[in-house]
Amino acid sequence: MKFQMLWLGLVLIAVKTYAAKQGKNTTIPALIVFGDSIMDTGNNNGLHTILKCNFPPYGKDFPGGYATGRFSDGRVPSDLIAEKLGLTKTLPAYMNLNLKPEDLLQGVTFASGGTGYDPLTAKMMSVISVWDQLTYFKQYISTIKQHFGEEKAQNILDHSFFLVVSSSNDLAHTFLAQSYKYDRTSYANFLADSATKFVRELHKLGARKIGVFSAVPVGCVPLQRTMFGGLFTRRCNKPLNKMAKQFNARLSPALDSLDKELDGVIFYIDVYDTLLDIIQNPAKYGFEVANRGCCGKSTLAISYLCNSLNPFTCSNSSAYVFWDSYHPTERAYQVIVDKLLAKYLSKIY
Description:
Blueprint: H1 2-22, E1 31-35, H2 77-84, E2 107-109, H3 119-125, H4 130-148, H5 150-159, E3 161-165, H6 168-178, H7 184-204, E4 209-213, H8 222-228, H9 238-261, E5 265-269, H10 272-280, E6 289-293, E7 320-322, H11 330-344
Parallel strand pairs: 1-2, 1-3, 3-4, 4-5, 6-7
Helix pairs in contact: 2-11, 4-5, 6-7, 7-9
């Protein structure tokens, strides 16, 4: 009996030692997010921009039914990922004036709806550029140091999950304004190179666990189908999806190279195939509608065009892949997040 207990004890010690070497005992203290409307939880509310959603029916499925500035019927991926990491059910927007220092400890999102890797994108929409988001991040770390000390700030830098999500607005909108000097391929490459530069700058500021979303099949959102997919057929905008794939083809190996060059972990997160499969096979995931948004049941409803005056907003948003003409529903986001975390979560532990 004593021999068996000794043997069991040695096994447990070996398992714990192996886990420690693999970093499996490391907790994630915070989630820090940069990007666009997919991850924005209210940073645009106080900006002078038309890209806002802090009014009904946005937020109709959010706890309490509040329109918080999230571009969806409920929570968005930044919230859902934070919950999966055991941090919080709703990730605060950094620009929320009511935030207290202790509210910053489990992370924030700097994301701003309408922004992109191209500085012109944010300028056109009067929102916060990803590069300005880095400036706010410096401010965030300074606040942590001031109120909680250098050691706490360093722990956040070393062990938090940093997530970067952008490119849709650049590809879908800004390319047209930049087409006098770029073709589709060179613009996609420019964006991927900009994303790589952003990650390098974020690493210089101390981030050590960085995940970067791929471009999504933005040519298949309802708005693009309506404008470029044919009046009656409303197919996906294939040239736009091709640009997204070119961006991904350039970004993925660039991030692999950064991961080898720099300390910590830097990795590419393929969202394109996951969302495309949901759009092409909605019934497989329990959805009924994938080519129109729930809000107004319309093909052209986003921001102020998605409002409480429209009597046609669906009652069951969970049956729809898209909430408005551009953004998925909370349920679609949940499906995406579950699939992505199942595939990539082990990289940050």
